Amino acid sequence: MSSQSNERDFPWWLLVLGLLGAWTAYSFSSSPLYLQLFDTLSKGLLITAYVSLIGFAFASLIGLGLALASLSSSLLMRQIARFTIEVIRGLPMMVLLLYVAFVLAPALVLAWNALAEPLGLSTVRSRGFSMLWRAVLALCIGYSAFIAEVFRAGLQSVDKGQIEAAQSLGLNRWQRFRHIIFPQAIRTILPPLGNDFVAMIKDSSLVSVLGVADITQLGKITAAGNFRYFETYNMVAILYLSMTVVLSILLKRLENRMRGAIKTH
Question: Are the C-beta atoms of residues 208 and 216 closer than 8 Å to each other?
Fold first, then answer.
């Protein structure tokens, strides 16, 4: 029975994917066209990584704030947080990206200029707010709502008895959160949080509609110039797949290690 279970658990999909990856790498390395495409498109890797990392970092901070607000003892705070989360989650990422880029960003510039002029501060032009940062802001806002739900579920998974025990020991709210709640909640939070990061890497391809020179945008420009759509988008797909599969494997190993640590304790 155990041998059958081990056979089922063996990651055959990963073995097949590895063989396909090795064959693809060999085929690409022997093709001057694919080598040229890789050299061109890999320049967008830095932009893709930059947008994803910065956007996810700020989205996590905002998401944590929304999660804490949704669990607040204040009815007003809970309702504001719930309203914000539901509105953002109800918008398609593409719509949110365009709205932030062409509506919210210019409005922020106008608001800043209105405050800066009376205070003698330097004003900015709308063009000074680059499309790269508009894309980062859009991804940050879009994913903050989903991350807020991850944090909320993780925080609520902590046993209330431990929180009450910490309160009886005289720990204030910040000390209870820092020493009792968050260290336990992070075990529940990390796996879905990692999945959201992988999803953000994939959704970062949407920033190409703003002209940001990520992998997808460079792929579109390259394909429009050489008319080799098959080869170009093969390379685009391989680059994204390489990033997401590697991250998924690392997150799975982290999740298994955390489960083992919980069982030992």
Answer: yes
Are the C-beta atoms of residues 163 and 176 closer than 8 Å to each other?
Answer: yes
Enter the tokens of residue 23. 């064959």
What per-residue confidence (pLDDT) applies to 206?
Answer: 92
Give the pLDDT confidence of 136-157 residue by residue, as tens digits.
999 999 999 999 999 998 888 8
What are the structural domains, with CATH classification, of the chain?
15-264 (1.10.3720.10)
| Concatenated DSSP letters of 16-44 | HHHHHHHHHHHHHHT-HHHHHHHHHHTHH
Dist. CA 259–CA 265, nearest whole Å: 10
The dihedral of CA 110, 112, 116, 121: what is its sign?
negative
Distance CA 235, CA 48 (A): 15
Let me know how long the chain is.
Answer: 265
Question: If you ran DSSP here, which 8-state letter would residue 121 be given?
Answer: P
Q: Is the pLDDT of residue 1 over 60?
A: no
Q: Which residues contact 258 (CB under 8 A, 6 or more apart)?
A: 187, 190, 191
Q: What is the DSSP letter of 47?
A: H
Residue 253 phi, psi dihedral angles, 5° rounding = -65, -40
With H, G, I as helix, E, B as strand and everything else as coil, classify residue 129.
coil
Whether pTM > 0.70 for this model: the answer is yes
Radius of gyration of the chain (CA): 23
**Six-digit token string for 104:** 């919210």
**Residue 144: how many CB atoms within 10 A of its CB?**
25
